[in-house]
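Final report, section 2: Outcomes. Of the targets proposed, BnaCnng11660D protein is the one most frequently requested by collaborating groups, and we therefore present its record in full.
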Amino acid sequence: MANNPQLIFVNDIKPRKTACRIQVKIIHTWRHFMKDVGESLELILCDANGTKIHASCNKTYIAEVAKHVRVGVWRNIDHFSVSGAGGAYRSTDHNGLLNPNFLIDVIGQVQDLGDLETIGCNGGKQRQKLEFTLVDICGQRLACCLWGKFAENLHTASQETEGMVICLLRFAKIGQYRGEFQISNSYDASQMFVNPEIPEADEFKQRAIGDSQALTLAESEENKLELQMKRDKWMHYPQRNLRELFEETEEKLCRVVAQSMTLILIGDGCNNKKIQNLLVKDDTGESQFMLLDSIATGVVPASATTLLNGSWDELEEDDPFPEEITNLVGQTFMFGVYIQKDNASGGAIKLERYGKTYVC
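The predicted structure is given below as tokens.
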């Protein structure tokens, strides 16, 4: 009769040592799909010493294994093989070199929460993106960027939470963006907890209600502006004047600061869209900007239906214009402009899919 496999710790696992057994807690699971390979079940396991290891189960055994690996339970596992950990972002550092390309856990107070953006990705897919800063108990700051459901969930939780928001990211990856370290979720492998009931989160709250050692929530306007400029991609493009726009012969992105003179509002009654022909000027001349769809919202946030009181009839000469439009005359805006070969015709610049407007 064969002896029972020897019970060992995760650190003692060797590639050629298969006649062994480990006792581990399942701390995370997720499904992964790869083209030409199919679906797999991925697991993060942790032994009594706190050592973690990544396990993977191919599609042949998923149905049987998935029933026994609920998160939080302890299991004895044998009959497994061991291979070298690889990939750009490993879920643990087991049997690997000291390298930043593995997933980490991080906790901090959410500050500098940006807007929930919709970004066009490869294949025409749209993904939600949210940038913010995590601040630890010592005041150290770390840039973060979440994608997809993680971005949506944190944005919603932050809107619904009064006071401090503490975020715990598990199995997050370390990257670099514009020369700075940045934390982001690693697809579905990551986990996120907002205001978790753990001692580390309680420590943040105690510091917040303490004396002069409490975390400072308010920042100077100068710091906020600097942070906004780092986050907003349009702030990294050169600024041009109106004359240079029409002299440009190559496609490029740039910014233009100009003062509004006259605005003509056109509403699409079927789709409730706004089209604004905005006559603007600067020191080099005048131009007409045609703002379509969401770009127009930066100038007039209200919908076309609201501005026209639900009527799509042409205004008479003595009909008053909406106050939201008349108030725009004389205001200065900064426009994010995508210069195309055909977007500057007849003295007009069209801002449709690409572009942005800022009130100066």
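The first strand starts at residue 6 and ends at 8.
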